[in-house]
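Reopening: Protein mab-21-like 3 still failing for me.
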Amino acid sequence: MTFDDDIVPIKVKRWFKSLVGEAVNQPKYRNLITTDRISSSPATTLSVKFPDIDYPISIDLCPMIESQLELRPECHWPRPNSKRPSQQKRSAIRKVGVNEIAKEPFNWTLSFAACLKSELTSYHLKNVLFWECEDHPFDTEWQQELLAARVKSMTYRLLAYIQRGNLPLYFHDGVNLFSNKDKAVLQKVVNNIKAFLEQPKPYLSE
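Support: Ran it again with your exact input. Result attached.
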């Protein structure tokens, strides 16, 4: 998997995919799981059939090198005059560092996933939005004059999910998107949401 002592991403992807293919090709999995072809995506995608679900669920698996690289100056992080995150959190993120994933054939791509592990991400908010859309499926409920109500509803919805410690994945509600989140971090989010709901103006910019 190396060339001139360098680990070659495309070789890693092929090796990883062969291992995944070998694992899912066992008789008990063969009719339930299929894998996609190698693509420009860093992930190997599995399509898994569940007996109680009519459609397959896609699962992405990605080989990653835990290189713990320093954040480069071109990342422009943290931004000047930014008050978030705290100095303690910045130090923790720098300690975690940046990893590398095999996306391009001959170049490794930086991955910031580990830096976001304890944080809420846009993916969590997307799932909150999906659940809100399911409960409010009509276009009339998303008209301009009702957008503030929808945002407020989603804010309370997120608060409830955090307090329960369970945000179900929209496409497979048996998966809890908070399962690996730090409870202390989630509690800080709860405090911030409550502060926002009590006095939203300081959080809103013109």
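Helices lie at 9-24, 27-30, 87-96, 122-135, 147-164, 183-198. If you still see a failure, please send the error message rather than a screenshot.
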